[in-house]
Design brief:
By secondary structure, the protein is mainly alpha-helical. It has three domains: 3-39; 47-121, 3-Layer(aba) Sandwich (Glutaredoxin); 133-261, Glutathione S-transferase Yfyf (Class Pi), Chain A, domain 2, CATH 1.20.1050. It is 55% helix and 5% strand. It contains ten helices and four strands. It has a four-stranded mixed beta sheet. A hairpin with a 2-residue loop joins strand 3 (99-102) and strand 4 (105-107). The longest helix is centred in the middle third of the chain and has 30 residues, at 133-162.
Length: 266
């Protein structure tokens, strides 16, 4: 084999190798999607947030304001019944806020929608780097917000409306789940760790729920109060309030008696 023949064989081999790599890449959609989501390269469809004032749908409005992404907000100002009717028309099987139309898809669950938008369109924003120790705690608090904090606070609220507690539960109660968050903020500025993240967006709703309705005593949690002050100063949060809660809270639940939020002896 002469030098020219060898060179031609090398070129043919390189071409075959490149075609194989291309073909393999095409058969690995998960890898391709991961590469795109890491850079926020996926095209974004039209997004409409169907909203109830003062409810979890605020999270999606706040997220979009933080990211500077386009969206349509659908609700009837000051009329929860009319806003709910619009949600039922779009999502009769599960009429909850938020209901979001994402292109042709109808989506629920604010935490899942937040994670999806960040993965596809966030470009690495509002999420700690994957290799950072903060990434694990960021995910912890995203899921803790509903899985532990909101579920416990809502359950206690409903029970305590009937009978305020006389002693602490031997299990983790509302005070316990909020104290866990307080302890974390004693050593970290944000629920995302060193930087503000989507975990902070998720955590605000259940914390406000627990404190505003006297499920816990707000005065017991100075680090959470300081965190709330920082949250409320964020321009994107203020933009969310102006658009999604222009008249303040609409249709608030009644607060528990003050004694229900006082610490009791175990």
């Amino acid at each position: 084999m002469n030098i020219k023949q060898f060179s031609n064989l090398k070129k043919i081999g390189l071409a075959i190798a490149l075609s194989v790599v291309t073909a393999v890449g095409a058969t690995l959609p998960a890898t391709a999607v991961h590469a795109q989501t890491a850079t926020g390269a996926l095209p974004m469809p039209e997004i409409t947030i169907y909203h109830l004032e003062g409810r979890r749908s605020e999270r999606l409005v706040w997220l979009m304001e933080e990211l500077g992404l386009p969206y349509t907000l659908n609700f009837t100002r000051g009329n929860l019944a009319a806003s709910m009717a619009a949600i039922r028309a779009i999502n009769p099987a599960m009429p909850v806020a938020p209901t979001v139309t994402y292109g042709d898809q109808v989506l629920v669950e604010s935490g899942a929608i937040i994670e999806m938008i960040l993965a596809r369109h966030g470009g690495g924003r509002l999420v700690p780097p994957l290799a950072s120790p903060d990434f694990a705690t960021h995910l912890l608090w995203i899921h803790y917000a509903e899985g532990s904090l909101a579920s416990r606070a809502i359950a206690d609220y409903r029970v305590w409306q009937i009978q305020p507690p006389q002693q602490r539960s031997p299990l983790v109660d509302s005070e316990g789940v909020v104290q866990f968050a307080e302890n974390f903020l004693a050593n970290n500025p944000w629920f995302g760790g060193a930087e503000f993240s989507a975990a902070d967006i998720m955590m605000l709703f259940p914390i406000n729920f627990a404190m505003t309705l006297n499920i816990v005593n707000k005065a017991q949690f100075p680090h959470i109060n300081a965190w709330i002050t920082k949250i409320e100063a964020r321009p994107a949060y203020q933009a969310m309030l102006a658009k999604a809660r222009p008249d303040g809270m609409v249709g608030s639940l009644p607060a528990l008696p003050v004694n229900a939020s006082r610490p009791v002896t175990p």
